[in-house]
Amino acid sequence: MTAAASAPDLDTAEPTPTGALSQLIQDALDAGSTLRQLGKVAIDPKTGEKISWQYFQKLVKNPPASAPNPTQIRAIAAAIRKSETRIKEAAAEQWLDYRATELAGYGGTARIILGHLGAMTEQEQKRWLAMIEADERSRRED
């Protein structure tokens, strides 16, 4: 006699985290847009190429193995009314596990310094922080 296999316990299954771009699209859907509406307005302003509502569905339900290409990025941005930069950041986070940060109001020098500090060991960072704090103290004392 064989016993029927039991169904998996769905309550104990780990939830699959939603990727950043998939979440942006889901947020647009939650705000009242439909997949078909997104597909109608998903037009790359540079090339005029369109992406389908099915592509949005795929991004939300079962994202592809590779990130959207630049044409798709621009079309997604147009459809969900987010900047192209924001869509690129979300795609980088979802497919590359890279979180972009932006420094506004600073020149390229600040970015170079931060990149340099980011590559240092924790001990080296502490040394640099101590030097910066000592400089700040001496400026206040003058």
Short structural description:
The protein has 142 residues and is mainly alpha-helical. 58% of the residues lie in helices and 0% in strands.
What does this protein structure show overall?
The structure is a single chain. The chain has 142 residues and is mainly α. The chain has seven helices and no strands. The protein has helices spanning 20-30, 35-41, 53-61, 70-80, 84-96, 108-118, 122-141. The protein is elongated, with a radius of gyration of 23 Å. Mean pLDDT is 82; it is low at 1-16.
Rg (C-alpha, Å): 23 Å
Number of helices: 7
User: What quaternary form is this?
Assistant: single chain
End-to-end gap: 90 Å
Shape: elongated
Largest sheet: none
User: Element order, helices and strands?
Assistant: HHHHHHH
Report the β-strand fraction as a percent range: under 5%
Low-confidence spans: pLDDT under 50, at least 5 residues? 1-16
What class do helices, strands and sheet pairing give?
mainly alpha
Find the count of extended strands (DSSP E, 2+ residues). 0
